[in-house]
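Appendix C: a fully annotated inverse folding record. The material below is reproduced so that readers can follow the format used throughout the book. The structure is listed first as tokens, followed by the designed sequence.
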């Protein structure tokens, strides 16, 4: 059986200072980085190219093997998240006296 979460109050000030310093560093990196202009893709369908790549056909407009790998990895991660959510949502069956 699980217990409810408790607030951990015995933290050091060094951890808080380190977290604020890390946030400041990451904020500085993101604010000072330059992003190029969005170019997009030429005429053609990415979705159609991924579908043809899934069935190993050479009829797509783009070389989409990189998209296919990303598509499959995202599908596996989402399936694992769904399985974990179902597992966590199940109630433990306990016998009542």
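Designed amino acids, in order:
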């Amino acid at each position: 059986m699980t217990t409810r979460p408790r607030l951990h109050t015995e933290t050091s000030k060094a951890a808080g200072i380190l977290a604020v310093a890390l946030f400041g560093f990451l904020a500085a990196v993101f604010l000072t980085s330059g992003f190029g202009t969005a170019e997009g893709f030429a005429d053609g369908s990415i979705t159609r190219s991924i579908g043809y790549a899934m069935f190993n056909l050479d009829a797509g407009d783009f070389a989409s093997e990189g998209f296919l790998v990303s598509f499959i990895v995202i599908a596996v991660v989402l399936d694992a998240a769904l399985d974990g959510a179902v597992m966590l949502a199940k109630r433990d069956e306990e016998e009542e006296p």
